[in-house]
Amino acid sequence: MSRDGGKVKLAVFKFSSCSGCQDRLIDLGENLLSLTEKVEVAYFLEASSRTDPGPYDVALIEGSISTPHDVELVKEIRKNSRIVITIGTCAVYGGIQALRNWMNYQEVVKQVYPRPEWINSLEKSTPVSDHIKVDYQVSGCPVNELQLFNILKQVLTGRRPYHRLESLCQECKRRGNACVMVSRGIPCLGPIMVEGCGALCPSYGRGCYGCFGPMIDPKPDALAMRLEEIGLPKEEVIIRLRGFTSWSDPIRRFLERYERE
Amino acid sequence: MNGSKSFEIKVGQLARVEGEGGVWVRVKDGKLDYVEVNIFEPPRFFEAFLRGRPYLEAPDITARICGICPIAYIFAACRAMEKILGIDVPEEIETLRKIAFYGEWIESHVLHFAFLHAPDFLGYHSALEMARDYPDFVKDAITVRSWGNRAIEITGGRAIHPISFRVGGLYRIIRREELELLARNYDEIRKKGERLLEFILNLDLPDIEYDMVIMSLKGDREYPVLKGVVANNLGWEFPEDSFEDNVIVEQKKYSTGLHYRLRNGRPYITGPIARFNLNYDLLAPEVRDILEKAGYRAPLKNTYQSIVARAAENLHAIIEIGRLIEEYSEPRAPYVETAIRAGEAAAIVEAPRGMLYHRYRIDERGKILYANIVPPTTQNYAAMEEDIFRVGNLILSGPPEKAQHIVETTIRNYDPCISCSVHTIKLRIIRE
């Protein structure tokens, strides 16, 4: 799939995030080394000081868009890349830092910086797809490295990547877990969240807190009703949904309605 | 370009550091007259959006500040909350925490000394390039690092942003059999850890000596990880709760990371080199033997030698994990339950990059009212700038590419994790 029949040029970019997702690439270790015959890492600041200005065949983007400079840069990346893949919950949904989107921005800056006027940031932290066309998305906080590797492999060999988007409950059932909500009354976001983590939290006896983001066609209304039924006050339901992927479309739209009700 | 001309070096984006940063050095009339370590990692405002969240979420949320050292964030938050609630976690849980914490040191240290830092001293752009000439070193590093990740995975559920740890303990008990999966290849990993250290000790590191002010936790009977008193090489010793009284903080116009100094105005270094120099006697004797055979011992003299401290701590961490697994017995309950009460407390842990400070205030329902987080990298900015002044002559005497390399290498000594540009304390106004 490279432009000239040679190696595929891969670039990795980071915006507002913790570096955890791009580190998953380094964690792929020998798997990644096996790709180096087909792939040239043209731009990956964390791993190499050699930078190639592009154009690139595949750009991986970690992090949310949260400064005016980010907006410019991400557009440049789009122009310069054939395929853009966003990796991780920050890039796909705006990340945990999108919690500020629900607050008064001026207050937020004042609480953290003695000189708020020196901070050049956007009021909202937003997904990359709000600013450019994105070809594929892999969410997760952090992304699951095998999911990431599989998608990379498929894209690099010119295939259309296939990626399951069913709910965490499906994965939980496959693992044979007893449902934490049904059996122990523990609030769990699993019914509306996408699988990918291995149903980790319920396997450890705690409810899912939704760090991978919503499944395809989620029903937050039904989940909120259920959470209220097991005794959670409405304000706690809101706090839980207003979590790691509160800025994803379905959850944000639901919350905006639910909070007014 | 020696001396007489004025010029500027701008390293727009620093490569091979976690997060994003830049350095601005200005030379006037042949002298370095201005240095800026510019952190343009976008601010993420953790301390603001933590307000109003339940106390139990502090470990999970603050873990997301750093994908390289989430464990440190998790345990700093846990310990601060446990102090507020009056929880004393049992020994068995402490053991699991240490295993995870040492796993994180391994994961983070190997990433830095083998993949990000060693290429500087051997003249490569990346570990991938280095792998062609030193395949064994790179392979050993990959294997050891995966083992560190595995230690976190087994205790925490996953290697990055683990989910099993909570205020008061864990969400479920970790079984002995699970830890034995890790112990299985301990011997092999330990050998590789020794080889990695020996490789680093053979590097040609600058031998210059200067006055460093270092600060870290000091252990009592053990090398400090989860707790200790704060100490420096000026003879200060104080408890973690009075950290904010002993430092001053300033915000720079050019940077989203706040800058810290000692209350007497001096920059200080936190991190492996500080821990190493202040706690050398508490390193595993096997580690000290290897160091001393190669002619190294505390105190290390300059920040370039921080790579030695990292490789030594890496082997120490491997040995400690081996010992802790043997010692481990399962706790009776996964976590300590307690009534919620209002209060405020601080905790410092030793993240791979140095002291990580968390302070929280919560109300009687357990809602967070206030949070202050001081990551290690922000504490090191002032020292980084001082270091660049120190190597000013080297910067001035070579061609620009060389100068750029020196600046980058000097910053990289600190293993800066710039994603941790969270930030608040007292204000000192900078007039420019």
Write the SSE topology.
The complex is a heterodimer of chains A (261) and B (432).
Chain A: E1 8-14, H1 20-27, H2 30-35, E2 39-44, E3 56-62, H3 68-79, E4 81-87, H4 89-93, H5 105-112, E5 136-138, H6 145-156, H7 168-174, H8 180-184, H9 200-203, H10 220-229, H11 234-241, H12 249-260
Parallel strand pairs in A: 1-2, 1-3, 3-4, 4-5
Chain B: E1 7-11, E2 22-28, E3 31-38, H1 46-49, H2 58-63, H3 70-85, H4 91-122, H5 127-133, H6 135-156, E4 165-166, E5 169-170, H7 176-183, H8 186-201, E6 215-218, E7 229-232, E8 237-238, H9 243-246, E9 247-250, E10 259-262, H10 272-279, H11 285-293, H12 306-327, E11 343-351, E12 354-362, E13 368-374, H13 376-390, H14 392-397, H15 400-412
Antiparallel strand pairs in B: 1-2, 2-3, 4-5, 6-7, 7-8, 9-10, 11-12, 12-13
Mean pLDDT of chain B: 88
Which range does the strand content of chain B fall in?
15-25%
Q: List the quaternary state of the chains.
A: heterodimer
Helix count of chain B, per DSSP? 15
Number of domains of chain B: 1
Brief digest:
Chain A has helices at residues 20-27, 30-35, 68-79, 89-93, 105-112, 145-156, 168-174, 180-184, 200-203, 220-229, 234-241, 249-260, and strands at 8-14, 39-44, 56-62, 81-87, 136-138. Chain A is an alpha/beta fold and 261 residues long.
Description:
- The complex is a heterodimer of chains A (261) and B (432).
- Chain A is globular and about 60 Å long.
- Chain A has a 5-stranded parallel β-sheet, sandwiched between helices.
- The model of chain A has no long low-confidence stretch (mean pLDDT 90).
- With 261 residues, chain A is α/β, with parallel strands linked by helices.
- Chain A is built from 12 helices and 5 strands.
- The longest helix of chain A has 12 residues.
- Chain A is 37% helix and 11% strand.
- With 432 residues, chain B is an alpha+beta fold.
- In chain B, 44% of the residues lie in helices and 16% in strands.
- In chain B, α8 packs antiparallel against α12.
- Chains A and B meet through α1, α5 and α9 of A and α1, α4, α5 and α6 of B.
